[in-house]
Design brief:
mainly alpha
């Protein structure tokens, strides 16, 4: 069991830790960490590099979460022939590790994204009906406000409630609550900007892409 558990944790974390947004921007000659909000996630990529790059990063980050649950978890469980509650918990554990890998990637000094897309990928595999409800909440808030951050915070609050409403067990309710709290924590700077009225809306003028200044590089 120990070997299966360690393998699951490492593979899921490493899959989640692939810094998609950073790599896509780097391929275009941009350090996304020095532009816009400085975040490597899909929203900042969308603002800086446009719709195509943003959609690609969003999809890839979601796939990291889904693949951790659908591929890595069964592989880890296959390394142990025994059965039991721990093996049944492998998909949820794999999803958690993938999200932590995205949020705290070892390739960028443990500074990563906010985990919204990767969490969506995880719950696409674990609880698709609950994710659908949370996604609907995201769409309504985004359509009304044009704030991705506000929509993501509302979806993070809605997810555990949706998991409960759709009849999932205590494990997923607990996992979704913890991940929702993590997502809100990762948005603390956005919350401060929302309260100050300085948060950027989607549809606002896209910032000019320029090379980082010497001051930003240091």
């Amino acid at each position: 069991m120990a070997a299966a558990l360690i393998t699951l944790i490492l593979l899921s974390y490493l899959l989640g830790s692939i810094p998609t947004g950073y790599l896509v921007a780097k391929a275009k000659g941009v350090d996304i960490r020095s532009m816009g909000s400085g975040n490597i996630g899909a929203t900042n990529v969308f603002r800086i590099l446009g719709k195509g790059a943003g959609i690609f990063v969003l999809t890839a980050d979601a796939l990291k979460g889904a693949l951790a649950v659908l591929v890595v978890a069964p592989f880890g469980a296959g390394l142990d022939a025994s059965s039991g509650a721990m093996l049944q918990n492998f998909p949820a554990l794999a999803g958690i590790c993938a999200i932590l890998g995205h949020n705290y990637t070892c390739w960028l000094r443990f500074k990563g994204g906010k985990g919204i897309a990767t969490t969506a990928g995880v719950f696409t595999a674990l609880a698709p009906a609950a994710l659908g409800i949370a996604l609907a909440a995201w769409l309504v808030v985004f359509a009304a406000s044009r704030y991705v951050s506000l929509a993501s915070i509302v979806a993070a609050v809605a997810l555990p409630l949706a998991v409960w409403l759709t009849g999932n067990g205590a494990l997923l309710i607990g996992v979704s609550t913890a991940l929702g709290a993590l997502a809100i924590y990762k948005h603390k700077a956005n919350l401060q900007r929302l309260l100050a009225g300085t948060e950027s809306r989607i549809g606002a003028k896209k910032p000019e892409v320029t090379a980082p200044t010497e001051e930003k590089k240091s």
